[in-house]
């Protein structure tokens, strides 16, 4: 099983460190791990450092992967730039074949069809990317990321352009996909209730530094919400065993 651990990780912009000394527990495949924090906390910078796009001190320890790190790990940035003249199907097909020649098997075509259907964008398959809404393009980017079957997947706010219903649908799909494939997924989220519901672990970043990391229900607490997000809130558990954050509006 693939595992990932960060040891004293920092990310350098120019002569300074934008992210500094991030060390985490060992995260394992088959689970989603949320990366949360206020705006400009350093989440995207951390993802780029883990993906090898930025330099800095520390170590990314990847073990148990079947492939070399450059093939095992994939990064889905928050802002994706796609060729607007390609159709949805062409863009996902190109993602499959990147670096693997141009011969396309029936199995690969079937997998593309299955992913587009699972993300509910099969009806967009032959529309040009330039004709799509921001949310639709985001779903296509998710399809491009998962169709390559990475062992570790870094997703930087992949649901930010989606409505609430589609956010829940996509996160449930990613949760099941991770479990079925044994994929280790790190996913930057703003909705902390989503982190509680779908993510086994949570990493909290603030001002470029690690605040805490561990099981989501141990990390997302009223004390953390007060310290990092400056809100008074409580965590309530519903009858299905799920936890929800209830903000105290009177404590302004």
UniProtKB/TrEMBL annotation:
<dbReference type="GO" id="GO:0016887">
    <property type="term" value="F:ATP hydrolysis activity"/>
</dbReference>
<keyword id="KW-0864">Zinc transport</keyword>
<dbReference type="InterPro" id="IPR050153">
    <property type="entry name" value="Metal_Ion_Import_ABC"/>
</dbReference>
<keyword id="KW-0547">Nucleotide-binding</keyword>
<protein>
    <submittedName>
        <fullName>ABC transporter ATP-binding protein</fullName>
    </submittedName>
</protein>
<keyword id="KW-0813">Transport</keyword>
<comment type="similarity">
    <text>Belongs to the ABC transporter superfamily.</text>
</comment>
<dbReference type="InterPro" id="IPR003439">
    <property type="entry name" value="ABC_transporter-like_ATP-bd"/>
</dbReference>
<keyword id="KW-0406">Ion transport</keyword>
<keyword id="KW-0067">ATP-binding</keyword>
<keyword id="KW-0862">Zinc</keyword>
<dbReference type="GO" id="GO:0005524">
    <property type="term" value="F:ATP binding"/>
</dbReference>
<dbReference type="Pfam" id="PF00005">
    <property type="entry name" value="ABC_tran"/>
</dbReference>
<dbReference type="InterPro" id="IPR003593">
    <property type="entry name" value="AAA+_ATPase"/>
</dbReference>
<dbReference type="GO" id="GO:0006829">
    <property type="term" value="P:zinc ion transport"/>
</dbReference>
<dbReference type="InterPro" id="IPR027417">
    <property type="entry name" value="P-loop_NTPase"/>
</dbReference>
<feature type="domain" description="ABC transporter">
    <location>
        <begin position="4"/>
        <end position="232"/>
    </location>
</feature>
<dbReference type="InterPro" id="IPR017871">
    <property type="entry name" value="ABC_transporter-like_CS"/>
</dbReference>
């Amino acid at each position: 099983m693939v595992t990932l651990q960060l040891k004293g990780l920092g990310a350098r912009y120019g002569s300074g460190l934008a992210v500094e000394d991030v060390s985490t527990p060992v995260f394992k495949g088959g689970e989603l791990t949320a990366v949360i924090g206020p705006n400009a906390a350093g989440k995207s910078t951390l993802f780029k450092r883990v993906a090898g796009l930025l330099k800095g001190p520390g170590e990314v320890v990847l073990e148990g992967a079947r492939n070399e790190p450059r093939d095992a790990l994939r990064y889905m940035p928050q802002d994706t730039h796609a060729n607007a003249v390609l159709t949805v199907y062409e863009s996902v097909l190109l993602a499959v074949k990147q670096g693997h020649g141009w011969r396309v098997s029936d199995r690969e075509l079937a997998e593309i069809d299955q992913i587009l259907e699972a993300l509910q964008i099969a009806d967009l398959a032959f529309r040009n990317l330039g004709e799509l809404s921001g949310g639709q393009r985001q779903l296509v980017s998710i399809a491009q990321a998962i169709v390559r079957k990475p062992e570790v997947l870094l997703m930087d706010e992949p649901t930010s352009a989606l409505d609430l219903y589609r956010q829940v649908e996509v996160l449930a799909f990613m949760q099941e996909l991770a479990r079925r494939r044994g994929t280790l997924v790190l996913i930057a989220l703003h909705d902390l209730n989503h982190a509680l519901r779908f993510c086994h672990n949570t990493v909290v970043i603030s001002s470029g530094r690690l605040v805490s990391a561990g099981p989501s229900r141990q990390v997302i607490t009223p004390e953390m919400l007060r310290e990092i997000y400056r809100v008074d809130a409580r965590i309530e558990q519903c009858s299905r065993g799920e936890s929800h954050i209830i903000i105290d509006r009177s404590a302004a």
